[in-house]
Amino acid sequence: MIYLDHAATTPVDPEVADAMMPYLREEYGNPSGKYYCQATHAKDAVEQARAHVADLIGAKPEEIIFTAGATESTNFIIKGYLDYQKYYGDGRNQVITSNAEHKATLHVCHFLNGDIYSNSDPSTSLFSGNSKVDRGFSALFLPVDQYAAVSPEQVEHAFTPQTALVSLIYVNNEVGTINNVCAVGRMCREHDVRFHVDATQAVGKIPVSTDDISCDFMSFSAHKLYGPKGIGCAYLRSDGYGIPPITALLHGGEQEYGFRAGTLAVHNIVGFGKAAEIAKRRMTEDQQHAEDMDAYFLQGLSSISDLKLINPTESRMKGIFSILVERENFNNERFIRRISDEAAISTGSACSAGEPSHVIEAIGQREHVHRILRVSLGRSTTRGDIDAFLNLLK
Known about the structure:
By secondary structure, this protein is α/β, with parallel strands linked by helices. The chain has 2 domains: 2-9 and 282-393, Aspartate Aminotransferase, domain 1 (Alpha-Beta Complex), CATH 3.90.1150.10; 14-277, Type I PLP-dependent aspartate aminotransferase-like (Major domain) (Aspartate Aminotransferase, domain 2). It contains 11 helices and 12 strands. It has a 7-stranded mixed beta sheet with strand order 2-8-7-6-5-3-4, sandwiched between helices. A 3-stranded antiparallel beta sheet has the order 9-10-12, with no helix packed on it. A two-stranded parallel ribbon has the order 1-11. Helix 1 (14-20) packs antiparallel against helix 8, helix 2 packs parallel to helix 8 (266-301) and helix 3 runs parallel beside helix 4 (103-112). The radius of gyration is 21 Å and the shape is globular.
């Protein structure tokens, strides 16, 4: 099997798996327990992992809150910050985002905007005859350009006195476009607006610094950087008094500084920490490999007629390709099903399986949505893998 769907998930690094195993067998203590060795060992392991994750993005360990993944982190940050600001802060209640975000961001913002209550049936309201409810918040969805990018100027022009938060994706998970988050971050600082970055497709692939971005919040997942599934983190920027107030996501115990109640999944946290440590250690090597494989794949694509790269610019993350097959009789779902025993690729986000891509629609390619493939390379991708896939594509 040729695996070319690393933007959906990555295999667990053997080093990561080895680090996790003791916390599934011998070191099974609850880190919230007291005094006995299993509890203290678990707590120490969690804090060591927190330090590794923080180091990967240039943060302080106490600014990292472990969650079940980037989707949960994004929900926590957007809902939590807006709720606190509206009811306990200065009253601002608006979030600005784009219409090409990951669905974790889009659906949270549509929920706050009163448009939906469910992911599975967003068109249905609980209240007959009323398709929109007033939750006390508003969301503005900015259009994107032909590559799914948002310009900093767009963001600045969209600010209103009620704008509390901007939430943007760093690297688009379908077309690979890199947003200019550093410029947006500086702009948000100038206007006293908080900035959340969905860095899921960036962290572990390129150097990411919370200070360079000037972001207040960040979310990402372990399984995108060769760690386990079911674990991610929310970065919350601290000030001289610690982390500023934000409404908790899960109410209950005081785990994760009181922001997320519930017993910690120590084995997953340890795996996340080890994956972050490896990513930091291998950053230069992995970037060079990504550049080499990217160039080799592009060279191979150029030899096949009727193929077009959705984003051919330098703003694309190396290793993520959105490819338009310019043949009327081509259907991406049928093609993927046909080669499924030999190669793993996708039509877009793994969170949009079976649905037309909202990102492709947002960039004006709606009529071509059934002819677009997403191919994403990874740490283990070889030239042989690429050659074999290109032969299937031919």
